Every structure is written in structure tokens, then in C-alpha cells.
């Protein structure tokens, strides 16, 4: 009698497992509306999803990320400090339709304040101000951005300026 109950329960469990389990299936390509996308598994570097990863697109806010990376690396090396005072220069040549913190030439802010303006409100002038502070000129900063991009394996990336916007004019 006990063996019959055991077999009945065991077979019932097998049937339920077959009915209740969801079969695994590969996903179709997700409906990503971005022009390009890349999803990488962090530990192995395995590309899980890519879309138009080699297409030439506007570099946009990637410049802000690279600018911030260079500034943070300079802070780590002791070349800059978050509380360091910086006088705003390098404000010429910025497109009028880009994001700004309305910083005026001669205004003094800390590196930390400039980073907040760059990363929170995407203020274009802060990239130039910090770039000039770090490398002596915006052109030298852009050259350093391109060097760092190559070091990171960003082979399809070329920075033309520190803002990512088309040149003014």
C-alpha cells in the first residue's frame, strides 16, 4: 500500500514538473530604438547583443564620459584635486544651441563643481575649461582623449572636440 502511494505521488510530481516548467527559448532581437547598441557581459567581455556597433554616428555624450574619465584619472594621479579652484577660460567656439551652465569667462569654480555641471546638466563649456586646465589647451585635451580611446580599445572612436557637438559656425 505504501509503495502504491509513493509511486502515485512520484508520478504526480513528474507530471506537474512537466506541465509547470517553462521551456527555455532564445529571445528574438529586442526592439531597440537606438541607432546603435552594445551589451557586454562585464566579467568575460562576451558580447551579448550588438546593433550597428561599427557605424559612424555622432559621438554625443561619449565625450562627456571620456572628459570625466581623464579628469578623474588626473585626480587619482594627484594632478588635480576636487576642491581645486579653476578660473573659466576656453569658452570660445562653442555652438550656441548646446547645453550650458552659463559659466562666464573669469568665473571661478572648483573641479568638483565643473564635473557636476558636465555630468548632470551636460554643460559643454565645462569640458573645455577642464580640458584646458588639465592639458594646457583644448586641442591637447582632445588629443589626450583620442590617445585614451585607443588605449581602451575604442578603435572606431575619434574625438574632434571636447563637447561632442558639431563645430560652431
Poorly predicted sequence stretches spanning 5 or more consecutive residues: none
Rg (C-alpha, Å):
26 Å
- Total of helices: 5
How many distinct beta strands? 4
Report the portion of residues in β strands: 5-15%
Strand order of the largest sheet: 1-2
Helix percent band: 40-55%
| Shape type | elongated
Major β-sheet profile: 2 strands, antiparallel
SS class: mainly alpha
Following the backbone from N to C, one meets helices and strands in this order, namely HEEHEEHHH
Distance between the termini: 92 Å
Q: How would you state the average pLDDT, rounded? A: 84
Give an overview in words.
It is a single chain. By secondary structure, the chain is mainly alpha-helical. 41% of the residues lie in helices and 9% in strands. It has helices at 2-20, 62-76, 111-120, 124-135, 138-151, and strands at residues 37-40, 47-51, 85-87, 108-110. The strands form two sheets. It has a two-stranded antiparallel ribbon. Strands 3-4 form a two-stranded antiparallel ribbon. Strand 1 and strand 2 (47-51) form a beta hairpin. The longest helix is centred in the N-terminal third of the chain and has 19 residues, at 2-20. The N and C termini lie far apart (92 Å). 22% of the residues are buried.
Amino acid at each position: 500500500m505504501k509503495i502504491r502511494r509513493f509511486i502515485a505521488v512520484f508520478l504526480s510530481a513528474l507530471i506537474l514538473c512537466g506541465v509547470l516548467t517553462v521551456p527555455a527559448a532564445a529571445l528574438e532581437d529586442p526592439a531597440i530604438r537606438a541607432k546603435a547598441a552594445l551589451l557586454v557581459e562585464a566579467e568575460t567581455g562576451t558580447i551579448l547583443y550588438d546593433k550597428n556597433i561599427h557605424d559612424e554616428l555622432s559621438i554625443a555624450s561619449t565625450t562627456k564620459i571620456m572628459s570625466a574619465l581623464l579628469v578623474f584619472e588626473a585626480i587619482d594621479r594627484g594632478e588635480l584635486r576636487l576642491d581645486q579652484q579653476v578660473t573659466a577660460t576656453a569658452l570660445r567656439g562653442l555652438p550656441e544651441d548646446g547645453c550650458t551652465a552659463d559659466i562666464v569667462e573669469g568665473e571661478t569654480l572648483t573641479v568638483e563643481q565643473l564635473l557636476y555641471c558636465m555630468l548632470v546638466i551636460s554643460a559643454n563649456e565645462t569640458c573645455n575649461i577642464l580640458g584646458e586646465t588639465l592639458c594646457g589647451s583644448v586641442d591637447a585635451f582632445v588629443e589626450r582623449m583620442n590617445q585614451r580611446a585607443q588605449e581602451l580599445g575604442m578603435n572606431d572612436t575619434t574625438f574632434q572636440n571636447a563637447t561632442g557637438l558639431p563645430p560652431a559656425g
